[in-house]
Amino acid sequence: FSLLVGIVVVVVVVVVVFGDLLQIKKQLISVISLCKERGLVHSVKWASELAFALDPLPKDELPPPPPFTEEDAQDLDALALAKSYFDLKEYDRAAYFLRGCRSHKAYFLYMYSRYLSGEKKKDDETVDSLGPLEKGQVRNEALRELRVELSKKHSAGELDGFTLYLYGVVLRKLDLLKEAVDVFVEATHALPLHWGAWLELCNLITNIEMLKSLSLPDCWIRDFFMAHMYTELQMIKEALQKYQSLIEAGFSKSTYIISQIAVAYHNIRDIDQALALFNELRDQDPYRIENMDTFSNLLYVKSMKPELSYLAHNLVEIDKYRVETCCVIGNYYSLRSQHEKAALYFQRALKLNPRCLGAWTLMGHEYMEMKNTSAAIQAYRHAVEVNKRDYRAWYGLGQTYEILKMPFYCLYYYRKAHQLRPNDSRMLVALGESYEKLSQHVEAKKCYWRAYSVGDVEKMALLKLAKLHEQLNESDDAAQCYIIYIQDIFSCGEQLEHAEVSTALRYLGQYYFKNKLYDEASLCAQRCCDYNDAREEGKALLRQISQVRDQAETPSAELFAPLSNNNTPVRRVSPLNLSSFTP
Amino acid sequence: MASVHESLYFNPMMTNGVVHANVFGIKDWVTPYKISVLALLYEMTTSKISLPERRRLNKLILPLQQGPDLTLGQFLKTVEDCCPQTAYAVKLRLHEMADGELKDMEFFFSTLPTPFTAFDSEAYKTSVVGLFMRHMLLAYNKLSFSQVYKLYKSLQQYYHSHYAKPTDRQVDVPVLAADDSDMDLTSTEDTVGDRTDKEELDTPLHESELRRGPLSQKQAEYFLARQAYLLKNDENKALKPAALQDELNNMLKFNPDFAEAHYLNYLNSMRVQDIFISTHSLLHYFDRLILSGSEGKSNGDEGYGRSLRYAALNLASLHCRFGHYQQADLALQEAIRIAQESNDHVCLQHCLSWLYTLEQMKGSDSSVLTEDSVKMAAHFCLPYLASLGIQSLVQQGAIQGKTAHELMDALKDTDILHWKHSLSELIEISLAQTTSIWRMYGKSTMALQQAQLLLNMSSLEPVNFGVQQNNTEAFAVALCHLAELHAEQGLYGAVAEILLHLKEQFPPHTQHAKLWMLCDLKIQFERHMNEGKYHLAEPQVTAIAALNKTEGLYRKAQVLKALNRSTEAYSILQRLQVHCEKTKCTEMIIRVMLSTAELHWESCGFSTALPFLLQALALARQHHLQALASETVLHLAFTQLMLGVPEQALTVLHEAMEPILAHGAVMDKGRALLLTARCQMACFCGSAAASYFSMLNCKERLRDVYYLQAQLYRSLRQTSQCNKCAMLFRLLDQELQSPAAPISMRL
Predict the structure, then answer these.
(1) Does residue A409 form part of some domain?
(2) How many domains, chain A?
(3) Closest-CA residue in chain A for B255?
(4) Does the CB of B7 have a partner CB in chain A at under 8 Å?
(5) Compositional bias of type Basic and acidic residues: which residue ranges (chain B) (predicted)?
(6) A268, A476, A578, B516: which is deepest, by most CB within 10 A?
(7) Which of A457-461, A556-560, B442-446 bottoms out in mean pLDDT, i.e. has the lowest?
């Protein structure tokens, strides 16, 4: 009995119960008004977008306004005045009129104005500081006081969801990340519907273990958070699953979800899916600027010039001083090979937002195109400094040094990139090429083989491996590689520009001929004739084969008769004796 | 077009899209501290000060101007020490400004003596003071209104924070202030390390409050230069690796453009043997450097192509230091290729010198390469590389058995070069090398003298940040030799002191610590062996083997030999000999041969030991290794004695006696004297006496002679001889049948 009890494992599938959408809609509407009163514009935007995706409520179903306390009534006028100042970005003034207020709402706005005032001053200060001594010192002076006040209230337990969020923001700005995470988790418990708190939390979580260790409130919004988090942590499969379930639950019209899915597809390089989604997004929300830089990247990769041009012009009409717009225009110029202009626009994007990671990398690419290696190195370096995990920048650095003919030096950078994307064949091929240049054949072979194993995007690894084997006179291994290469090329269907099937066939023909496997050799030679560059050689080989056969007239040819029907030549050597050097 | 973009957008002064105000090339900024210095200078030019005080103040000017910012308290104290009256006046002036209004500060700047008018004052435009004032005025005049206001605010804060007790507010402690008390640049005190500790104790605030403020360009440069110098010359005085890392991280946080900080980071991580961070920092530094060099020609001498070459070269040196020879080789080849492509002979020369170093490290012969390198270096006027090459050649020559005068000649030539170009580092190396060479030749007195010469030499660096004695490899080597020389003379007290000093100067985690560790172990081992405590010597063998495999094997053989486990010892010695012949380590070969010969003695194979000894002697003579030659002679003499030719042994011994008594270790001296005594005993003229007595048939005396001879042979363990004499004695004794009178009682 005890055995039975022990063995049974019940897999509990946690099904997200979304209650009914009506409830969610109600919650969204109430949180929108709450955030609006407090000037939290981004959360308002997010919630409104989501609410818009749901069916409108009948009149009597609308949520009641939040309870109105005596304190609220007292602060009503001051709050109205302050809010108007706040909306006009006169933060100090707003804070001044709110200083004596007691209601929660007023208190939040009071603290928030002070925080924003400090941030605004900080930005202004950066422009005219007193030289380098001052440069780093420019910081939000209000933060310290805010922290002291808020921490007092926090320990007294007097903070509501919004003030907890503000406290978390203050802590994060002071680089007290651990405390900030705790406070944000608390804020999500106090007010789960406030997306801002979730988003801040998202920025602080660096790995999956950390995510698992947090105890988050069980609310429908948590699924949005998890999906977002998975995208951030490059766990695209999980993220897509989450979003799919959200769509099925009734959020199918949400532009937010569509854009997120599109970005996720972009991250796993599923270009067609992503493009389709972005097009859908553009249909639904034609004046959208967010995520359009990602869209333009996709168009760029696909070399869809007219579409990209249309997008760029469209975005310029909407708002030309947006980072995304600049990136799109940069991509547009880059596709038109006007790299200087492209770099100019990426520069502009960086001026608008210096922490815009993508622009640094893209600018690096542009400088590479312009053969301005030193500027490219700088741009990539900046990108890496902003985000150490940007594999494209590391890869770009490697490429730059490779162009400068420093194969050993670039190894380090390729290795970094490979570390970040262990299953990306491009880095592996690049590594292999560098090793090959350094005459480190064993390592090079390992890299190529691994690149093939993880799914070679450009289908180049095998060809390179085969050529390397050919160079080293390892004809059996080379032949095996060519065979797999040919199979690979034909199985994937589409014709690749750089495909060198003819090279492979030519080599295989010679190889079989040398090994006296005339049937296979003639098969290869016949196939050679399909290609312009190998036709003559194919014919020559066929002639040679028939000559040899006439001379020999051996019955042994019969042996191979059944085999020759087979399209793929049968392996004479054991299937790819590569086990010795697969990593 | 590209270059236009570059200069527009890739300005070194631009980070994250924000152009620093620094873009005008002004490195000086008006800070509250600078205003205090200006006030001081103003007071000095206007008021009457007595001559000695003025002299002291004058000495203060330069350090104050160039040093990092001080707090007001530190500044006033410094001035007060020189002239209290001026300090008071300065304080008063600052008080006027800080407690007054903005116009007071503006007024102060307008009253400063303009360096262009006052011809006869100290503040004339070309003087140090004048230049500083001009800088300050220029910087001040460039400030915008809000900046002036901010400056005034910070002046107020600067002034008041001196009086107000620091409470919750962050205390602005300049981390870099070299000293609290005085700013004398030559002061030997270095309290940076202590200060940080103190700070942490004094301010038990939260983490965020402990954050240090940013550094000005100048402060950062000073800090980096100082720490880099200390890392090179006196690692102990530099900040601890972790603390330095913290500082650098802090600096880079506020000043991400400061590429040099990455380089220092690289040096710092080399200290703790962290290949990951050091590679990262090195590459980062060069990525950054390419930026600053980008304004020149793209591939010429000045352009970034140059930094590319040196980047690859540095990478090679990094791998070299971590012992990744293959990687180093690849990087070096890359550097060479790029340098060749761009015709950079200087860089090529550097590559070449690394190439032969690498070859040497790999253990192959590289003298041809080195010779080429020296020739080329001389051709391109690179004295440093040239003499480095010569030194390397001397080292190789010494191992290959060049004669002393050739080596010394070469060293003398390089010394001239060193002094001419004041290459102090190489002078030190040269002295250490001479010490080693003398030691190798077995001239302990000369070695001792050279070592002392090096140790007593004071630093030749122009700026030495208070470092009296450099902690370079040369010093470590000299000190180790000194320790071993003292140990040879049995002065273990002195040895302990030297080793203690070494331990302090080169803590175990540092780069050169292995040198003294090995030396210490060797001395201990010898001591235990001499005292016959073999069980104590055994654990040392493992430790030695960890530091030096060959040496460890040799010592193991010695212990085994002492424990009478001859077979094992013999197999080890044979292996060792094969290995040493491969690596051409002559000294070790000779020592192995001697040990092998000793093993042969154990099995009474004295005649089989002879060829080994003769071969060893030939080798030692050929390589001019006097100490080893003398030891071989001792061995040879002993073998001859054992083979029963004491007369030969004596003549051989006489030859070795002089050098042994002059230069040898106490152990050798003792052994030599004992051996002489034994040989003389063996040559005892008894047999001649016996023949005389037998001629006279003086049997009684003959019996005495036989008795003595038998006793002697017994003590010399020549049993057969002993038996023979004993038999003769017995025969005579039976014949005489009278009790023998005591021998000593008769002539």
Answers:
(1) yes
(2) 1
(3) A136
(4) no
(5) 192-211
(6) B516
(7) A556-560
Q: Residue B469: CB partners within 8 Å, gap ≥ 6? A: B234, B455, B458, B459, B475, B505
Kindly list the residues from chain B whose CB atom is less than 8 angstroms away from the CB atom of residue A134.
150, 214
Which H or E element spans position B18? strand B18-19
Mean pLDDT of chain A: 82
What is the C-alpha to C-alpha distance for residues A166 and A172, in angstroms, rounded to an integer? 10
Question: What range defines the domain where residue A438 resides?
Answer: 388-392+402-487
Q: Which residues of A touch B (CB under 8 A)?
A: 126, 128-137, 174-176, 340, 343-344, 347, 350-351, 354-355, 370-372, 374-375, 377-378, 381-382, 385-386, 397, 404-409, 412-413, 438, 440
How far away is chain A from the Cα of B124, in angstroms, using its nearest Cα? 27
Distance of CA A547 to the CA centre of its chain: 59
Task: Give the N- to C-terminal CA distance of chain B in Å, as an integer.
Answer: 115
Residue A137 pLDDT: 53
pLDDT band at B463 (very low <50, low <70, confident <90, very high): low
Give the Å distances, CA to CA, from B601 to A492, B271, B563, B714.
80, 49, 15, 18
> Can you give the pLDDT at residue A333?
92
pLDDT confidence band for A329 (50 / 70 / 90): very high
Q: Is the pLDDT of residue A581 over 60?
A: no
Q: How far apart (Å, rounded) are the C-alpha atoms in residues A76 and A65?
A: 15
Are residues B247 and B175 in contact, defined by beta-carbon separation less than 8 angstroms? Answer: yes
CATH of the domain at A437: 1.25.40.10
Cβ-Cβ contacts under 8 Å, A349 against chain B: none
Residue A205 is assigned to a structural domain of this protein: no
Give the A:B interface size as CB pairs under 8 Å. Answer: 130
Look at residue A544 and tell me whether its pLDDT is greater than 80: yes
CB-based contact A506:A537 (threshold 8 Å): yes
Per-residue pLDDT, B121: 64
- pLDDT class for A81, splitting at 50, 70, 90? very high
Phi, psi of B525 (to 5 degrees): -60, -50
Q: Does the residue A321 lie in any domain? A: no
Q: For the residues of B665-695, what is the DSSP string, one character each? A: -HHHHHHHHHHHHHHHHHT-THHHHHHHHHH
Q: How far is the C-alpha of A487 from the C-alpha of A278, rounded, in Å?
A: 34
Closest to B338 (Cα-Cα) out of B315, B361, B370, B364: B315
Task: Please state, in angstroms and as integers, the Cα–Cα distance from residue A346 to each residue in A136, A339, B33, B72, B109, following that order.
Answer: 26, 10, 41, 46, 44
Asked, for residue A29, whether it belongs to a domain, the answer is no
Q: Do the beta carbons of residue B477 and residue B451 sit within 8 Å?
A: no
**Complex-level ipTM:** 0.70
Q: Do B311 and A409 touch (CB under 8 A)?
A: yes
Higher pLDDT, B80 or A386: B80
Beta bridge pairs of residue B15: B18
CB-based burial, B79-99: b 16+ in 10 Å, e otherwise: beebbeebbebbbebbeebbe
How far is the C-alpha of A326 from the C-alpha of A343, rounded, in Å?
10
Q: Over 90: is that where the pLDDT of A414 sits?
A: yes
Query: How far apart are the C-alpha atoms of B287 and B314, rounded to whole Å?
Result: 13
Least confident piece of the model among A67-76, A471-480, B169-178, B242-251 = B169-178
Tell me, rounded to whole angstroms, the distance of Cα B236 from its chain centroid.
12
Nearest by Cα to B94 from B39, B34, B165, B148: B39
pLDDT at B173 over 60: no
B501, B516 contact by CB (below 8 A): no
Instruction: Name the closest residue on chain B to residue A355, using Cα atoms.
Output: B16
Residue A420, Cα to own-chain centre: how many angstroms? 12
3-state secondary structure of B14: strand
Mutation target vs A (from B175, B255, B283; most A CBs, 10 A cutoff): B283
